[in-house]
Amino acid sequence: MNNNAITLKQKLKIHSSLRTIDWKNNAVVMIDQTKLPNRLVFVKYKDYKDVANAIRTLVVRGAPAIGVSGAFGLALAALQSKAKTKEKLLADLEQARRILFETRPTAVNLAWGLGKIMDVAKKGKDIWAIKKSIIQTAKKMAEDDVQTNMKMGKHGAKLFENNDTIMTHCNAGALATVGYGTALGVIRATKESGKKIKVIATETRPVMQGSRLTAFELKHDDIDVSLIPDTAVGYAMSKGLVTKVIVGADRILRTGHVYNKIGTYQIALMAQQHKIPFYVAAPLSTFDLKSNPEDVIIEQRKASEVTTVAGKKTAPDDIGVINPAFDMTPPNLVTGIITETGIAKPPYPESIKKLFKSRL
Ligand code: RUB
């Protein structure tokens, strides 16, 4: 996989034109997020199985980013296929879809991205038309993602005031999307609207998306960011250091149940205790209007993420480990959900329905 890694030796800077994921010369190019913040490395894939592996190993992560990665993975699968008939091409694509889908179970955007491409493929009249329309659709999905985030930013910025200190968890930034970000997109838009704001980022153990990615992104955007250990959330809130919270989401149900990075639930509970508004920013592609809470699979990750720090053992051998990647925050703890079509407020079953209607 790393044979085709291109290391940029220039200054470590995420320029606004830089994309987390891109399609170039019939290949997928991604930032390898496992190398940040120390090195900015791009990886290039021509095989959809490498894209599946990149999603599984968090080279690319964040709900919208893996949705678009899945779509580009299918575009590669279409190019790789030697099928001579439409039926055989669809069978090859279905096999690739399954392999890509099985990489991570919680973020619904992956199923959304794959489903959209499969629909386009089924409508194509011959193999050439199918291959062309798959690539076009995947590229459009990447383009739309950035536009969607900017719209979300505009809506969300209205909820934040001058001198707010905003707590965020995990990374819901440009790196979790194709560009601009969801929760960090709202933070960027608030700053762009002229308001002075500060951010408190949790480090987000065990994979450190907060310290490695969020702090990195915000620093490079000249946004005032302070990093705290996950265990200091209660301290920061009880000392009056936080005025609002905003996080992203991997899946939101029609009832307003929010699935996001492990630790989100306890932040929301603590925010309620301290009467701090708790907002979620996510595109409509993150909503799952069909499932109930008992249907959602929470991804369990490997024990070594918890028993080691930077490759060094920090726990005894042969102990039990519980390492869920996500948790569920119930709707009664959520002040508002910011999307590209507007902001949903409780009661969520009605307001979420309205958001989807307003899209039509
Ligand atoms: C990512 C995570 C992020 C959401 C944000 O987890 O939980 O908060 O994906 O998504 P992981 P969005 O790093 O394990 O993929 O950008 O839609 O807000």
Spatial sequence of strands, sheet with the most strands: 7-6-5-8-11-16-17
Rg, please? 20 Å
Number of strands: 17
Percent of residues in β-strands = 15-25%
Mean pLDDT: 94
Total of helices: 11
Largest sheet: 7 strands, mixed
Structural category: alpha/beta
Q: H/E element string?
A: EEEEHHHHHEHEHEHEEEHEEHEEEEEH
Overall helicity: 40-55%
* Intertermini distance: 42 Å
Indicate the low-confidence ranges by residue numbers.
1-15
Classify the oligomer: single chain
- List the ligand species: ribulose-1,5-diphosphate
**Global shape:** globular
Word description of this protein:
The protein starts with 5 loop residues before the first strand and ends with a helix. The chain has eleven helices and 17 strands. A seven-stranded mixed sheet has the order 7-6-5-8-11-16-17, with helices on both faces. A four-stranded antiparallel sheet has the order 1-4-3-2. Strands 12-9-10-15 form a four-stranded mixed sheet, with helices on one face. It is of the alpha/beta class. Strand 6 (198-202), helix 7 and strand 7 (224-228) form a beta-alpha-beta unit. Helix 2 (63-80) packs parallel to helix 4 and helix 3 (86-101) packs antiparallel against helix 4 (108-123).
